[in-house]
Amino acid sequence: MKKLQAIRGMNDVLPDQSVTWQFLENTFSTVVKRFGYREIRFPIVEQTQLFTRSIGEVTDIVEKEMYSFDDRNGVNLSLRPEGTAGCVRAGEQHGLFYNQQRRLWYQGPMFRHERPQKGRYRQFHQFGVEALGMPGPDIDVEVLQLAHMLWQELKLTEHLTLEINNIGNSEDRKAYAKSLTEFLTTKTEMLDEDALSRMHSNPMRLLDSKNPEVQSVINAAPILSDFLSEASKSHYTKLKDMLDSIGINYIENARLVRGLDYYNNCVYEWTTDALGAQGSVCGGGRYDGLVKQLGGKETYACGFAIGMERLVLMLDSLEKVPSSEHKQIDIFIVIIGEKLIPQGLSVASKIRNEYPNLGTLCHCGGGKFNSQLKKAYSCGADVAVILEEESCEGKPINAKIRQLDDSNESKVVEISEISQELRSFLSI
Ligand code: ATP
Ligand code: MG
C-alpha cells in the first residue's frame, strides 16, 4: 500500500530538530515573563469573517492564502493565518480589555496557502505579543525592547536589523491612498495585473511590490510622509527618540507598509540577510482601530509576531544552540539478565527522584553487555550504572558505576547506595 505523506508545506519536527525549537520556546517564555506578559491561548479555527474583517479583504492573506472551508453546518471557517485577530477576539469576548491594560503573548501554528520554500511554509509557527490599552509610544518601545532582549538571549542581535516606518492614522492613509490612486491611474501601462487590481482598492500595497517596473512607478509617486498628521508624526518622533536613548538601532524604511490592513502609525520589521529571500523574522506595529473594528470599544493596541521556523533556521545555520541543549541523557542503566529488570527499574526511579534535572535512561529489551554499553556511549551519557546477574549469586546485589569517559573509572557499590554514590561521578 502507498505510504501516506505529510501535506506539502507542513513540516514534521523530528527529535534532533526539536532541540532547537525547545531552546527557542524556553528562551521566549523566560523573556516574556521578565516583561510581565501573560499567555493567552485561543482556537486554531475561527469564523472566516474574523480574518476578513481584521486583516482586510484586499490583502495577500485573505485573497490568496487562507485555508477556508464550510463545516458540516455550512458555517464558513478558516484556519488562523495569524494570531492578532484571534487574540483580540478572545480578549474582547471575555472582557479583558474593558478599562484595562493587558500585556499578552501567544504561540502556535498558523496556516497560509503560499508556495512552500525555505523559510516559507503552509503550516508555520508564530510567537506573538500584544499590548492593549496603552497609547504609546512607551509601550511600542517596550515591545521592541522585548524582541531585542530575545535576540540578545539567542545571540542573534548582530544578524538582525530593525526597520521602522510611520504609516499614519486611518485619515492620513485615506488621503494618501486617494492621491496615490490618482497618480497610478496615469501610469497603468506600467503596472502588472496585481497592481492594477489593487490600485483602487488598496493602493498602498503597491509600495512593497517586488516587481521592478511597479517599483519604478512608485519611485515617482507621492510619498506617504507628506500626508501624515502632526499627532502621528509626533508619536513617531518620540518613539525614535526613545529607541535612541535606550540604544536600540534601527533604520527607517519608507516602503514598509506591512501586509495586514489593521496597522496604524508605527510599523516595523526585524529582518536578516542570513535566510535569503525570506528575510523577515518579526513584524508588528500599532493597531489602534482593530478592537473597535471587531465590535469592541476603541482600544489602543500594539504588538508583533515572530516567525519561529525562520528563527530555527537561523539558530541552526549559525550554530547558536548551546551544546548543553543537545544533551538528553546523563545516566544510562545497563541491565544484564532478566531477573534484574525489576531492580533496574526501581533504581532508575530512585535516581530520577534524587536528580530530577538529569535524564536517566533504563535500557529495555535485554541484550549483551557490550551492546548495551555501546548504547550508553552513543546517547552521550556521562555515567553507566551496571546491574549484572552474576554479581548477585548468593551475595547481596552489587552494581557497578562507570564513568563513560577516557578514565573509565568505576566503583562497585551496593544497590541501595547507587543514587548517593553517583554524586561523585556526576559533575554536579
Ligand atoms: P513575508 O513578507 O515573508 O510573507 P509577512 O509580512 O506575510 O511575511 P507577517 O504576517 O508579518 O509576515 O508574519 C510575521 C512573521 O511570520 C514573518 O515575519 C515571518 O517570520 C513569519 N511568516 C509569515 N508567513 C510565513 C510562512 N508562510 N512561513 C513561515 N514563516 C512565515
Ligand atoms: Mg506573507
Describe the structure.
Strands 1-5-6-11-10-9-7-8 form an eight-stranded mixed β-sheet. It has a five-stranded mixed β-sheet with strand order 13-12-14-15-16, sandwiched between helices. The model has no long low-confidence stretch (mean pLDDT 92). It is an alpha+beta fold. 35% of the residues lie in helices and 21% in strands. The protein has two domains: 15-169 and 229-317, Bira Bifunctional Protein, Domain 2 (BirA Bifunctional Protein, domain 2), CATH 3.30.930.10; 327-426, 3-Layer(aba) Sandwich (Rossmann fold), CATH 3.40.50.800. Helix 12 (341-354) links the parallel strand 12 (331-336) and strand 13. Bound molecules: adenosine-5'-triphosphate and magnesium ion (MG). The site of adenosine-5'-triphosphate has 18 residues, from strand 6, strand 10, strand 11 and helix 11.
